[in-house]
Amino acid sequence: PDNVSWDGQYYDAPHFFFKEFLRTGDVRWFDVFEAHSRNMMDVLTGHFGAGNANTGACRYNPARDHVKLDEGNLYLSSETNHHKNQGLFERYYLCGDERSLEVALETVTWAATNYPNDYRSPGQIRGPAHYCHMMMEAYKFLKQPAYLTKVANTVNYHVDYFNNNTKNLGVFSQFDWMGSLFNEAVVDYYEVQPTVKVATFLKDLSDR
Fold first, then answer.
1. Cα(96)–Cα(164) distance, rounded to whole angstroms?
2. Contact 135, 150 (CB under 8 A)
3. What are residue 59's DSSP bridge partners?
4. For the chain, percent helix, then strand, then coil, each to nearest 5?
5. Residue 76: beta bridge partners?
């Protein structure tokens, strides 16, 4: 009860609820998905107008006891460590909410502007993971190859990093919570654009 780190924009809680609704058919999951995705759309994403550097950024206000660090102040993140948009796209797909689509695309524009080619941060692998998810959602909706290229650049950079560091699992491990987020993003990419290199990477992790 003292830690709501998975709430709202933190790792896209609406996406969890969406998947549970599809998995179970229980409309209570839809209700909580609808409420949380609306909050994510209207409150937890930066809305400062076109041309503002914080439009589309992750904007959250965690509980005062959040991991014993935050004091409850508003925070605008310059990273994608907590920034995902799957729940926003899913709100559009499931509810037809065009505002949700507009905000989802704002998050894509923000991420693509701040990290135009790829996202390189092996020490905080959740950032590249969420970046890849955002670009993949944009690619799946818009079918513009540039978004898939951004994901490919990011995934291949981190796979090379893994391979060039004596295959040290580190944060890439599926037993590391950040690593599990990255593995999910790599699988998402692999299902659209399979390569032997990425398949070998996933197999190396699974075999360990």
1. 45
2. yes
3. 76
4. 60, 5, 35
5. 59
